[in-house]
Write a structure and sequence with these properties.
Length: 233
């Protein structure tokens, strides 16, 4: 997701906020490995050793924060089994197209890099009958990216997730919107449902629990340094 943000930030340098609407995959989006790094998006970029000012009255907790992208992120989820969109059907189009080309001897697939190459060659934009003119959809050019889980040989594809250890966010599955907007602390605003009115004078607070849940998600010491800690103890 960060790569997508950087892509748009390069096209629109004044970009301040990314709004994501997605399905609510627990493992992909609602775990600490996503929510933790999300909080670093609004932090200044190209700066290391940014002190964390999460204590009340602006005090620092003594930790440093990760550099960010200088971008806010608002991520809204739909409930389980909802929220599939054009992107999902395009994924099926790719599979169908590859099956066809394999059948007619135009493609040999051994691993994901062959699939990725095929998609880059054949699916640079939606087919004309899929453009959904006048509707909200992904109708521009398609950007294809490949990532490795660390098992693919060589260094052609970046490995994700990066090995980062983040504080848990208990109950995160029960929330359907997360917003990170602080440039000086790793803060996440969690809400049961998205509300787009301003915090002051929101008429929905009693129904939706909107604007009320704030969390700090700190990066924890890596497991290796924690081992050292426990040895010291
Ligand atoms: Zn802190
Ligand atoms: Zn509201």
């Amino acid at each position: 997701m960060k790569e997508i943000a950087v892509y748009y930030k390069n096209i629109i340098p004044s970009l301040k906020r990314i709004k994501v609407k997605s399905d609510g995959s627990r493992t992909q989006y609602k775990g600490r490995k996503n929510l933790g790094p999300m909080t670093s998006w609004p932090h200044p970029s190209n700066e290391n050793n940014i002190p964390c000012f999460c204590e009340s009255q602006g005090g620092t907790c003594g930790r440093n924060m990760l550099p960010g992208l200088g971008l806010e992120i608002w991520h809204d989820f739909s409930v389980s089994h909802h929220g599939s969109g054009p992107v999902d059907s395009y994924g099926k189009d790719a599979r169908r197209g590859m099956d066809k080309d394999t059948k007619f001897g135009r493609l040999s697939r051994y691993d994901f890099s062959h699939c990725l190459d095929w998609c880059e060659r054949n699916m640079s934009e939606p087919a004309s009958n899929r453009k959904r003119k006048g509707k909200w959809s992904a109708s521009g050019s398609y950007q294809w990216r490949g990532y490795s889980d660390g098992l693919y040989p060589g260094e052609k594809y970046p490995v994700i997730p990066e090995d980062r250890n983040w504080q848990q966010l208990p109950g995160s599955n029960e929330f359907y919107t997360f917003r990170a907007g602080s440039s000086y602390k790793p803060e996440l605003h969690a809400q049961f449902v998205p509300c787009y009115c301003s915090t002051l004078g929101c008429p929905h607070t009693n129904i939706t629990n909107a604007h009320s849940e704030y969390y700090y998600v700190h990066q924890l010491p890596s497991s290796r340094s924690r081992d050292v800690d426990s040895e010291d103890e």
